[in-house]
Amino acid sequence: MSNRQRARLLTTAVAIAAGLATVTGCSRSAGAASAPSPNAAAISAYISDMRSLTATTLPDAQRFSPNQSSDTQLIALGEQTCTDLQDHKPIDVVGLLEKKGWSRNDAGDIVMGATRKNTLCPDQYQAVNAMISAAGG
User: Fold this and answer.
1) Taking the model in full, what pTM does it have?
2) May I ask which residue range the UniProt record assigns to the signal sequence (predicted)?
């Protein structure tokens, strides 16, 4: 299965669980720790992954596309995604990214990119992969 297909399954899982997330909500725990700082190789791998994706460019949201973002913006976004994954389920993090203006597809790509092996927070990969598997992937 390609990374793009896995990202699509992630967004499908978000759609399936959207009602549950709305009912249960998500809250940040007090004093939550931030994600560990990634090394230069992890940052480089993440940027490479993000640049290799063909982002969905919706006319009204094109400015939010990973292909339209600088490396600095993508790094900050990826690091925030890793921090958010410490306190929230992957589907909730996709929802947080959507609230910031990212398309659901791009949000899924960001979460996938940040959690891949040798990128920003590979320790979160199993949680993302489990959600994708539960969605039928």
Assistant:
1) 0.68
2) 1-32
